[in-house]
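Recap for those who missed Tuesday's class. We walked through two folding examples back to back. For each one, the amino acid string is listed first and its predicted structure tokens come directly after. Nothing is annotated here on purpose, so try labeling regions yourself before you check the end of the notes.
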Amino acid sequence: MSEYPDRDAVAAQSLRGFGLPLSQQPALQLIYDTAPIGLAFLSLDCRYLQINQRLTEICGISVEGHLGHTVRECVPALADSVEAIVRSIVQTGEPVTGIEVAGQRADQVDERSWMTYWHPFRGPDGKIVGVNVAAEEITERKRAEAALQASERQFHTLADSIPQLVWMAEADGGIFWFNSHWYNYAGTPAGDNLGRDWKEILDPAEGGRAREEWTRSLQAGSAFEMELPLCGKDGQYRPFLTRVIPLRDPNGIIYRWIGTHIDISEQKRREEHIRFIIDELSHRTKNLLAVVMAVANQTARQAGDVAQYQARFAERLTALAHCHDLLVRDSWHGASFGDLVSAQLKPFQAKEGRIDAGGAPIILKPDAVQNLGLAIHELATNASKHGALSCPDGKVSIQWLLNESADRVRVLWCESGGPAVTPPQRRGFGHVVIEQIVPRALNGTGALDFAPTGVSWTFEFPVQP
């Protein structure tokens, strides 16, 4: 005897003449009731004549609660759709497949999804007498797809927010997505992926080597990393650190690749500047040591005793230090003429109001800073000890003028109001600096005049010696 006599009676009555009912075919009944997908047989008025346990899980109604009842009575939310499908099958005689159904059971809050397949059932005369329904639950697949879509949206948002060019490719290396920074850099329309490849904007000089390495990475399934120049929409090539890594599934099989390009232009500029600074520092250090040795030797020749030597040598080293402070402050690019004069005259600020300094906004190269700094120091020291700054009424004027047409700078040092000047009987270190070292180093010409009314110095040199 069947476990469901009412069901069997309804089914037998509806299917009389079309073969034995399932209750009389134990093997088929077992398959029907234990099938892993939902199965049902509907009459043409959408009444349940057969249904297995699996399909009842859609609405939470038992098998007995379905049999003999219509779809509208059991699952009213789906009735319109089901009735439309049945009408279509009756009218066309064709099955309806791949229809997705979603809903909730009354005793559950989570929505579930099913993929349904509807096939006509024909009697001996070929007429459609009912509809067989199969339903496969796809809830977990839908959730997994939704989670994957959410994850991809999150990834795309993140990839668009970082200052890098990012793309994703299939296992064979075919790119299917670029981030917004790629389109902005390459100058291609957003979303235009068809046939596009990151190698399109490679510097031709590097393209061959990069393609070979990328092909090897694809074949070996290994990460790819190179520094490569990429062409922007402005036609300029900029250095990028290119990395491409494989994404693997739990079985270790590559299913995608993700590529990133990091603009390292600024890093390269910093590295080049550091190399320049190191080279410049080495060069300057050698020059400075040569200058210090010359200062030491010349100071020793002019000093009357050790104390005088120490004092004069320390003053001149301090003058050199002021020059180097200015250069370090601007990363050895140079210093303004005004800053140089201020730094060298700082030890003589007690003479405030008696030094008039001014001139054009000129940026001096490092060599000019060092040599002119020494010259100004020697002139100011001499003026303080023997010249205009050694008496209350003396004054010093230092002006620098730029002759733009000739691209030359002219420096004027003029003392007045001091004691009467007599030419020195011997030439000391200051003379050597002003008349020999500075003109030779800066490719300039000058004249040092010991007029009775005050010492003056005129010097001209190219803006970029």
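Example two. Treat it independently of the first, because the proteins are unrelated.
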Amino acid sequence: MGKSALPRKLSESQARAVGRNIRVSPRKLNLVAQSIRGKSAESALSTLTFTPKRIARDVKKILQSAIANAENNHDLDVDDLIVSEASVGKNLTMKRFQPRARGRAGRIEKPFSQITIIVEEKRMLEAAKKKAVKKAAKPTPAKASPAKEDNAKAASAAVSEKKTAKKAEDKQPTAKKSPARKAPAKKASAKKETAEKPAAKKKPAKSASASKAITTKSQGGTKKSGKAKEAE
């Protein structure tokens, strides 16, 4: 079974072409790539056409390949393309030698380089720049210090523990509580009734002398009644 395809690294509005094993040093190739960076595709082609450097012809072929990829593979507008990137890198280096005096050899290096050209639609590039400017304009919230973050985490952990404890208490069967005894109500009504009723007149207490007189009278009466019976 074959390997799965790698995900596309570029955006939908970009296309690229890579030229490898170009017989020139990276330093010389970068001079040509610098002349087309940021230009429109049409202007870059005309610049490469009239550049006197030998390697400009190879760079022109790579740029044409990138434009064709954008048109055929990604359905981009050719008239709206610009050269957004032209990066240069090293490739292999062939090593040769030149015979010198007294049997010595002079070292000769033949460097190769590669170039990657990325073209992009101008409208999409401008839209992306506007989005980036808007994001940069928004104030970013200040980050909390690590000590504050730790305190916040500890507080949240304590709150979560309390919630779990409450849930556990709610789940446990609660014993039936005996009805609480009500406090005796104040007998305000009884007091009012007693206040409304007229106070009863108290009888004057009999003195001790009066009580003695009553007893003597009663005894005398009895005696008289006895004498009267004898007379009869």
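Answers for example two:
Confidence is low (pLDDT under 50) at residues 222-229.
Residues 14-135 form a domain with the Ribosomal Protein L22; Chain A fold (CATH 3.90.470.10).
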